[in-house]
Amino acid sequence: MKILALDSSGLVASVAIVEEDNLIAEYDIQYKxxxxxxxxxxxxxxxxMTDLDMSTLDAxxxxxxxxxxxxxxxxxxxxxxxxxxxxxxxxxIPTLEGLAYNLYGAKGxxxxxxxxxxxxxxxxxxxxxxxxxxxxxxCRLEVVESQCAVxxxxxxxxxxxxxxxxIFLGDGVPVFREKIGAAMxxxxxxxxxxxxxxxxxxIAALGxxxxxxxxxxxxxxxAPVYLRMSQAERERKEKExx
Length: 242
Known about the structure:
This protein is an alpha/beta fold. The protein folds into 2 domains: 2-95 and 197-233, Nucleotidyltransferase, domain 5, CATH 3.30.420; 103-195, ATPase, nucleotide binding domain (Nucleotidyltransferase, domain 5).
């Protein structure tokens, strides 16, 4: 099974290819250029460097949202185009779940936070649980709190109530670090730099699990998950209500 993975949901543009449990290639960049300038050239470079025959792909996995509205649309359009051209399905990975998977096997709760502007974060709470079946190796990621768009104070309150050690990661950490430090009443720490941003390798690894479980959609049926209205939609609604 060979899967191409894309993540343009946040500040990082990321492309990866996995074949079963083997990460063949990954290309990440966080720079001044937009995802529309970087994503396709990155994919083309990986294709050249790995002699990838696109017709051998079984599916395209992508960070399906939430995240940057523009970034999600770029990733969605790219994935849909590939899926339609190659006649293969898309695997929709929740963005926050992909971020949490960066910390595979970590103990305690994992809380990815992405800056959603207007004092809110895209967030969720996750936990790795060891497989009870001794014949299976590793652990599985369980959702403690589903991904949502809420004020940072709300997710901190939930974490304090859960009373378990927490690891924070994501581009919301530098924005809300001081508020986290002032309000957290339980042990917590922040993921190191090489783990705290979106990685297509994590999307790809989850994509393999999703694909084996039959959790995929047609390219035609895919749509990004925004969780809330865009600024343009909010402004239009406000005008309509005036």
